[in-house]
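Deliverable D5.2: sample structural annotation.
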Amino acid sequence: MARNDWFQRRAVGALARHAATARAPATVFAYSYAAREIMRFARAQGWRTVLGQIDPGPPEERSVARLYRGDASQSARWQPAPPEYWASWVEECRLADAVVVNSRWSKDALAEEGVAAGKIHVVPLAFEPPLNAKEFTRTYPDAFTPARPLRVLFLGQVTLRKGMGPVLDAIRLLAGDPVEFWFVGPLQINVPDDLHASARVHWTGAVSRGETARYFRDADVFLFPTFSDGFGLTQLEAQAWKLPIIASRFCGDVVTDGVNGLLLDDVSAADIVSAVRRVSREPESLRAMTASSGVGQQFTLN
């Protein structure tokens, strides 16, 4: 909050210098949680204001709170934002002439909080695939075996909000299946000892953005079982490498169920196990999905 306040003071100073010489009304775009003072200044000038909402807001926090309340082993790793954080955000939404979100999930969450649906606009993230991804051809074995298991990749913050609770349970339920899990990203959970030591589970930790390509390239399926995400850019990164995705429905609309991946009906261990077993036992389904994978036109800069 202190950093956001600092930024707003700097931004308002720059806007004041612009206002001193401006000959026409401006439109000011500012990101959520660092926008209130910027928008107050802009509205005082008679300018149009657009809020870029970076996440689903309070409904996401309530969802995360339930996850940590239900897991005593992880609860010390999270605390809610203070009330003044959300009070400032409510004022931002009131001052905004338009609110831009990245997904229908975020739009519904904001509408649930009382933001007028008519001023919420869905603009998905844009992603330009790297050239080497465009030329990449993905192949699968005829069958997954202990010697060549299905490689399930999770890449991002390893946290309860991203579905790690059900994922850890799913790994145990899949103990007899030819499946291994790769976790790439900063650990924000306490990893149980049995899974930390398991040869079927690889904990890589944080890597640079330049290193992520090899994980997308070498995996067989991308797992994105988030409980709430404004969008989830890693979905587009995976699709750029023609990597099928197993995703929840609480994020940006990238996966078409059965076409370029699978959608989970529920973020639960049972549903994750069912999806992973389906693709591990039917490599031909992965071949069909990878043939339909790629970054759609709706996600390009054009």
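Annotation notes: The mean pLDDT is 96. The radius of gyration is 21 Å.
The annotation will be released with the project's public dataset once the embargo ends.
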